Amino acid sequence: MQYTIRGIPEVVDTALRARARAAGKSLNEAAVDALAEGTGTTGAPRKRRDLGDIAGAWKADKAVESALAAQDRVDEDLWR
């Protein structure tokens, strides 16, 4: 679910940005954390979006790994 919030007071924006920097989080994460704290729901689980349906998921393939390793060796030989 996505929200768009307008009219954020400058003092709130400044505080959220400072919290995000201090915690090493995105502004969005800091805003969600602040909303959760303000509503008393800090322990509630969050829904996370897995982009596997869009980007696919990584599956190890020995044949592909071998081919890529061989290509790396060829590339290294060309640049020597």
Overview of the structural elements:
The protein has helices spanning 10-23, 27-39, 52-55, 62-78. It has one domain (10-78). Helix 1 packs across helix 2. It is mostly helical and 80 residues long. It starts with 9 loop residues before the first helix and ends with a helix. It is built from four helices and no strands.
**Largest sheet, described in full?**
none
Q: Radius of gyration, Cα only, in angstroms?
A: 22 Å
Q: Which percent bin holds the helix content?
A: 55-70%
Number of strands: 0
**Mean of all residue-level pLDDT scores:** 83
Q: H/E element string?
A: HHHH
N-C termini distance: 52 Å
Poorly predicted runs: none
- Beta-strand residue percentage: under 5%
Counted up, domains total 1
> Any idea what the shape is?
elongated
| H/I helix tally | 4
Question: Helix/strand/pairing class, anyone?
Answer: mainly alpha
For this entry, give a set of tags:
single chain; elongated
Describe the SSE topology.
Layout: H1 10-23, H2 27-39, H3 52-55, H4 62-78
In short:
The protein is built from 4 helices and no strands.
